[in-house]
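SEVERITY: medium
COMPONENT: batch folding queue
REPORTER: lab tech (J.R.)

DESCRIPTION
The queue accepted two submissions in a row. Attaching both inputs and their returned structure tokens so the on-call engineer can compare them side by side.

ATTACHMENT 1
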Amino acid sequence: MSGVDYTAARNLLAKGLGELEMVVSESQLEQLLELSLLLASWSKRINLTGHRSAPEIVRRLILDAAALITRLPELDSLADIGSGAGFPGFPIAILRPGCRVTLVESRERRHHFQREAIRRLELCNVCAQLGRAETLDSTPHAAAIAQAVAKPADALPLLLRWIESDGLLLFPGAYPPPPTPRDDPRVDFEPAVTYRVPLGGARRTLWIARKSSLNRP
């Protein structure tokens, strides 16, 4: 990677996080930057993401996840279902180190990247599981998230397997928000939250649902 790309990625990251008014440590900034460099390197060999350069990964993936984080409640654990290259799970784990993150991914190459990133970034609060969310032995989390995996109606049963009895289901998406199964008795949906990715990025929405009290153990 050229020095120009490195400097551009770092400047974009610092500017975007500043626009979000997120206070981050130098070590967190370095971890996010290292994540962008590692993903850019791997993407030259295998198709992990359509974004090939570190500055593009910062702008399109890391800052997108950082903007989402500003709308999330405090969580002590999160399952990222169909996490792909580890987004938004990796940025959440870095920017909220008190949150235990489980990355669930069925594609082996993406899983291998996740394991390498965990090792290289020394992320003690992240574990990666290889397999399908509907068949793996699930463990309870405070919340589960599905980003670009499926429509909320289709993703809902997958997320329900991975949350605690009063856990949250998180559905980030584009604007306007996709329709949700609001008549599903298993969950109670809150109004959609709208936010914007920094540096002139896209407008986004977030549906948050909680397991219905009628369906809790």
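ATTACHMENT 2
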Amino acid sequence: MKSFKSGDHLICRVQRDQKEMDIEVTLGDWPRERPGDIQVVYDAVDAPQATLRSLVTIPNGNTRKLPAILFLQGFDCSSVDWPLPEPNLTRELIYRLTRAGFVVMRSEKSGVGDSTGTPCRDVGFRDEVSLFTSALRKLKSYDFVDSDTPLVLKR
């Protein structure tokens, strides 16, 4: 299923009442994240040789520039989009950071989800760093992100 996109037409062979038949199916969009107290912006990052789908979470009612976090998902090639209600600890961490007043950006890796480019498993370390650097530039370009004040964490 990973090779199909929203809007693709498929022919599915099914069996009903011991008769086989073909049914045409048009794939719909994957549901979107819609927490009640957080705005989720679906966007894209134009990067060298790829376009990366990104999700940006912003506290509702925000009227000022906020500190921002670029969330890097780690070594796997799974999606960073988690719209389904089952518990997801990473999503909960991102939402808690957002509720605490941070803008948080997640970007898909190359070839994952709606992102284009080389399949994730074939992207080398340097190219992946370049892609995430493009995501960081995009994050810093939003008018609701305070990119001038460095964030200093203190104990």
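NOTES FROM REPORTER
Helices lie at 89-99, 125-141.
No errors were logged for either attachment.
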